[in-house]
What we know:
Order of helices and strands of chain B: EH
Oligomer: heterodimer
Structural class of chain B: alpha+beta
Helix content of chain B: 10-25%
Amino acid sequence: RQVxxxxxxxxxxxxxxxYKEDEALLVxxxxxxxxxxxxxxxxxCLPAYILFMxxxxxxxxxxxxxxxSLLTSTINAIKKVLKKNNDDFEMTSFWLANTSRLLHCLxxxxxxxxxxxxxxxxxxxxxxxxFDLAEYRQVLSDLSIQIYQQLVRVAEAIMxxxxxxxxxxxxxxxxxxxxxxxxxRNRTSSFDCEDGGPAGYTLEALIRQLGQFYTTxxxxxxxxxxxxxxVRQLFYSINAVTLNNLLLRKDVCSWSTGMQLRYNIxxxxxxxxxxxxxxxxxxxxxxxxIQAAQLxxxxxxxxxxxxxxxxxxxxxxxxxxxxxLNLYTPLNEFxxxxxxxxxxxxxxxxxxxxxxxxxxxxxKHTFPVLFPYxxxxxxxxxxxxxxxxNLDFLTRV
Amino acid sequence: RPPSRIRVLLKAPTLAxxxxxxxxxxxxxx
Lengths: 397, 30
């Protein structure tokens, strides 16, 4: 009688084994040559999870050299990818998401109880057995900060040419189109033609660009808290660039620009709300611009007006207030130039205010970034590695 | 519950030290 012995396949424990000779190929396929779209239909941050599952196996066999080697090669490869793609938002966002996910994994599976409070029983079984990787966590944390700074830099460079045009020059309120004097409108359009460049960017284009940044970060599985900080930094940049331009240009210091600005800022605020980003602190970074827009619109005649301006413009320096009042240009018979005595009144009222007396905003200022710990609910043994990654030399253990 | 395991701290250079060691330099040149 024939007996068939059925061999039960050993359960996958969420570890990946490879021969040391294959480390270079692993890093090449998973980091150096990785394109974000290859893993777009899979679990977000799949490369980070795969790397961590390889680290777990090296830890399991107690091979500290293998752990060292893989982590060093990985960090090295990520740095090179970033250097090669130093103006590519998508690549930078992708590696920020993956580096911070790898960092979260090193914490979540460290065995340190402080990081395990949200772990499932299965996740606790998957904790590292032999090594404490706290020093590598520090390296990955520093690397994440570097990548974040690159991401902000890339996004700012993309937005830079759009800001003045969309915030101050384009006419997003249709009814305002006829308010500007002919000279101004002609100058703008002839400037564009002479330059051979595209017609000015609209607010819609700026918002579309912000939307693209946001969607890319979300698609890559970047922690929402980090995405919020990127958006806040970009709003700071919109504020700084727009305000500086306003402070240097007579032709935009008018009542109608004030109206335009207020409308544009409300549209940006609406966008934040739509993306559930209104708690990010982004709109607070625009307070100086909001006040400048209001300053262009309020009455500037009586002593009461001066008092109102002083209590309104808390986020603007005295120098900025005076500059805007001096530049203020009436565009029709209902508006009037601000008198010297009115400006002197404002100066007298605010002379004791303690502030940094500078006219222009520091466009390079960056808020310190915080990376909150974000453990994942994903269980490592459920991960599937698509064949398209060319990692068939990895053995599931 | 089982006592928590003692794990060996793996020493790592800092990112700045890695940068000083030039490990991030392009090694593609001949």
